[in-house]
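ugh finaly. both done.
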Amino acid sequence: MLSTYRVLLVGYFGLGAVIVFWNIAVASRILQARRSASTAGVATGLAALLLVPALVVAVSDASMVYGRAIQPVAWLWPAVTLLFVIQAATALSQGRVNAMLGVPILAYDVVIAIVAIARHLNALGYTPPYFSLVLSAAQCDALGVVAGSAALSHATWLLIPMFSPALPSRSRIRIAFRYGLALGVSVATALVLVELPGASEAISSYTRYQHDVLTARNGGDFQFGLKIFPDLRSSPPPVALKNDFQLADSLGTDGISIVVDPEAARGKALDSLVRSLDNVRDDSTVLIVTLGYARRARADLNRSPSAYVEGRLADVNRLTRALRPNIIVPAYEPYGEGARALGIRTPEFWIDLIERSAAIAHHVNPNIRVAVAASSFGARDSVVYRWAAGRSSPVDVLGFSLMPGFDGAVSLDTHMRIAQRWLRATPRPKPHWVFAAGGYPVAHGQQSQLLALRGVLAWATSQQAVRGIVFTDAGDYDAQRGLRASDGRFRPALGELERSIAAERESAGQ
């Protein structure tokens, strides 16, 4: 029996596929029926021709791996969405389509075009009009029902525009199909529009951090880290090797953080990673290595839990021996990334895995510190945290992932309050790190990323037990949340990080 989530997922991808084929069929009929050129005919022909290439550009342009090459045609996706609006508006205004079909399709296409244009302006470094930014955030909220938090930062989650049926049909099946599609896009539009109030509140919520300041740590015991590279399933991309190391060096960060999925924790990929890190490792650089999840992790775990766990322990063994990290995180956000990859597992599952991983890491090198990070701040996360915070636990470093949510800074504030409560409830707390801090510049605007970072930095430096923070990410790779956008342009959050590092260095020198 299909779960609600799987039904929604199938519905999302099914509607997208149907709309693509619908567009091809409708464009073919319209163009065959027209003998002379017209505005609607030209818009229909161009949109049909460019739809698939524009989709490829929209997805590929979001990654630094392809962004520089595709940047000259990044305008293609917003241009194509405008062509769909022209076709739908013309068909409706000329009476070529019934209003019950034409109005919902036009409204749907207009929403997509506004979001596409707003995001393109954002990518060029301009601040889009407030309403369009709110609509962009609302679309993320609506898609979050299916995609989860990935909708905030992954370009693959978008809506596909639709042609208006500008020719009549006598087939009852075709008529029913048209109205079915119109109903589908009406639901999609409604889901976006009902999220507008919440999206507006989310974007404005970041202003609470506008006047936050760092707490001077006179002992110089606060460190700054930067997550570099995409989550690695193979060797690091050359563009990441060049750009991320340069950025970390120019910032003067104390450490670097990488996420290594099991596919890259062995063989030639691991050898390549070792060679890459040998060029930047020194005695003062803190290397944080997090073991991620394989693509088929859930299926592997369900098939044989014991074999899956043994495989992860073998990965921990290889990573600790090959990379010699200062800190290793054997379970990437148990109730964040872990829940998305493996489903919800009991705290006992994660405690056993972390405990066994710690034994391996400490056997390889007693100086390696084993860490665990809370991200959902729910009851299960609390159980794992309390166990890890205990003096008898083999965990050396505890941490938090502090990223905004669909509601912007509201959930971020809540998580920081929970984290502070956990810290206060722990006598003589172990060292803590914030292993992920940042924001979502595409979904909520570039200023929101800067302010979210400022808020977390202010909180982290005010907590004596928190010894460091890692900014997520150096660049746009898997997700659009980097200091460097896919076209190589730096986002304003870089200046905030630079100022924070300089301020802490100055206070440490006094």
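ok and the 2nd:
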Amino acid sequence: MKQVIALVLGGGRGTRLLPLTAYRAKPAVPLAGKYRLIDIPISNCINSEVNQIFVLTQFQSNSLHRHIRGTYRFDHFSGGFVEILAAQQTMQESDDVRHWYQGTADAVRKNLRHIAQDGIEYVLILSGDQLYRMDFREMLETHQKSGAEVTIAAKPVNRCEAGSLGIMRIDPTGRVVGFLEKPQTTRELNDVAMDPAWLDARGINCGGRDCLASMGIYLFNYKTLLAALEKTNYPDFGKDVFPATIRSRHVQLHLFDGYWEDIGTIRSFYEANLRLAEPNPPFELSSATAPIYTRTRSLPPSRFDGATIRHSLVADGCYIGAGSHIENSVVGLRCRIGRNVTIRNAVVMGADFYESPHQLACDSREGRPPIGIGDGAVIKNAIVDKNCHIGAGVEVAGNPLQVDRLSGEGWEMLDGLMVVAKDAVLRDGWRRA
């Protein structure tokens, strides 16, 4: 796999994940208590022996840069690297907003000089906000055997799911001959639907699925990518480059039928996390052959003093007080939870640090609860971001029937979920009016 270089696209604004992306890039959003979204594509690359990886960044990227620098270090003999390519102005460019990344394809176009390395034959384009486990060696094998110039990963889906995805039309050999973004009508769906028997013949149980959705994972011949970007000014891969390439190049489908989730909204982020805490999760975090890597931390084991915990994930360095009950939830790093706390159907991200005696004294002087969750608090149907000061007796509760977007100081109600923003302070006894 030394002839493959990977580009992970991490420069989007992530507006649909606000307020979680108010102070961080979307790929830096915490996942499953101890990881970040960016760990997924990078781990998939490392496990597939793709160890030349660039991460393209732009918005709110400080914590993402810090995480990558502190996590991914290769030895001098492997030749591997994970390097950051941040949006930047060069001597050939004026001080113009157009020189910021205008889309996924534009981000790669502006960095072509960095991937022009000897021996590179293929470029793997990945998203920084998806949850899945894939061996890219199998995708390269599909690409080479078919003689394709571009290969795209696709997942079979039902028609009811197709309306929010890009759907591909294929010929009997698996070559992509058409593409339709978010088909809505029966006629549009019929135009891109395939014969489910095509899946069955390839060892995949169709289960009634007759649409093939783009996963936004592309493998290009290097020269094909160069031509596609240098001869056009298309800004985006999914909307522009890929449909145009189908008309002029051999684009092949690579079937994938494992777990895959595009974590692009607050609701999808919340549900993906809680599914990971289920007794039989659809995506296993542990794997002997394809682990998920993240930053190594020197944290103590989590301590539970008489707490009850069911169907939940609890990360390192936590303290959970007596009488507390945690169910169907994810609890992040360094989380300090008091006595008789109830956490149900919630994602609590924890803290970036333990407060020092001086910081705790400042909290006390200013009448602010310490970082963590105070005695008797109730957290349910909610997301609590990092470093929040949640006082005793506080009630943070989403309402599945609440469809309107509401907000207040340090919190928002989104799609029936209450989201407490990073560093928010909810003083003793607080609850939404």
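summary for the 2nd one i guess: The chain has a mean pLDDT of 91.
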